[in-house]
Design a protein that fits this description.
The protein has 310 residues and is an alpha/beta fold. The protein folds into 2 domains: 122 residues, Glycogen Phosphorylase B (Rossmann fold); 167 residues, Rossmann fold (3-Layer(aba) Sandwich). The protein has 11 helices and 12 strands. The strands form 3 sheets. Strands 7-6-5-8-9-10 form a 6-stranded parallel sheet, with helices on both faces. The chain has a 4-stranded parallel sheet with strand order 1-2-3-4, sandwiched between helices. It has a two-stranded antiparallel ribbon with strand order 11-12. Helix 9 links the parallel strand 9 and strand 10. It is globular and about 70 Å long.
């Protein structure tokens, strides 16, 4: 759908072009061509700005160039938090409608009971170690603070490809450190394939009490939304607008490095307070209806404007 030729051949089968993700591999010239093609066939563009900083890109230059094409060109903009909307207004002079991210977990699973246990498990899932993850500094701090908290356990998960010498995601130094820490009894290490959705929900709901997001840059998080759905506490960095999405414990982390003291404080607060931050079916359903209505109104608005411009 990002191919201008696809638009030229298929513009009669859609009314609005709504972009969320998927343009990472496109050049700015190809996005310019896409925008011009959509204009030529009178199709309005809506863009939901999830990422002001791409979590997969160590250098923000390419994503910034993409945003410089898409944000000025969009007929309407949406984003998830007031902070992101302020950045959009400051950088591009555009107004973005702020709408919350809808529930990630199915409604029928939202109120499944969490597993009760004596331990307080702090989990950090390193996934495939994407570019915005500052893995070892975060895990080292966590291992130190967990040692001070009676009944607390540190669990680290990582995808199999990170331990596979044949994989592009192979991180031998990280795996070596984690395995040594496991042997010393500092942490529990789980190396596994990608979780299915159900496996991920089980991990968050039944196996982890606090999920630490080890990000040094980023904007918003679907992982955080899943945690909110399932009642898993979150410690999130202050480099993006995670704390504006849902209630969480915030700590200092950004391109300048990790604030170890604030991370330790966030973990201690979560351990001591253990608030019950969890979505309800009633709240998420009402929220989804509100988000759907807002999209309907926005689509209607851009279609009316498009019809007048023909």
């Amino acid at each position: 759908m990002l191919d201008p030729e696809w638009v030229r051949q298929n513009h009669t089968i859609f009314d609005v072009f709504h972009l969320h993700f998927g343009f990472d591999a496109e050049s700015t010239d190809s996005l310019d061509d896409l925008v011009r093609t959509l204009r030529a066939v009178h199709k309005p563009i809506v863009y939901t700005v999830h990422d002001l900083r791409n979590p997969h890109h160590p250098d923000p230059t390419a994503h910034d160039a993409h945003l410089d094409v898409l944000i000025p060109a969009a007929d309407q903009l949406i984003t998830l938090t007031p902070g992101a909307a302020e950045v959009i207004a400051d950088r591009w002079g555009r107004t973005a409608q702020v709408l919350p991210h809808p529930h990630v977990v199915a409604l029928e699973d939202l109120e499944l009971p969490r597993r009760q246990r004596d331990e307080f498990v702090v989990g950090v899932h390193l996934k495939s170690v994407r570019s915005n993850m500052d893995c070892l500094p975060v895990v080292v701090v966590l291992s130190d603070v967990i040692a001070e908290l009676p009944g607390a356990v540190l669990r680290v998960d990582v995808h199999t490809e990170v331990a596979d010498p044949e994989s592009l995601h192979y991180r031998p130094e990280l795996i070596s450190w984690l395995d040594a820490a496991r042997q010393r009894g500092v942490l529990r290490l789980n190396v596994h394939e990608f979780f299915s959705d159900e496996q991920l929900w089980t991990y968050l709901r039944d196996e982890v009490d606090l999920s630490v997001l080890p990000y040094r840059f980023g904007t918003h998080s679907g992982w955080l939304e899943a945690c909110h759905d399932l009642g898993t506490l979150v410690a999130a960095p202050d480099c993006g607008f995670y704390a504006q999405q849902r209630p969480c414990f915030e700590y200092g982390h950004g391109d300048a490095g990790l604030d170890a003291t604030s991370l330790a404080t966030a973990v201690r607060r979560a351990y001591q307070q253990r608030p019950r931050w969890r979505a309800t079916v009633e709240h998420r359903l009402a929220e989804r209806r509100r988000v759907a209505t807002a999209h309907y109104d926005l689509y209607s608005q851009v279609l009316r404007a498009a019809s007048k411009s023909r």
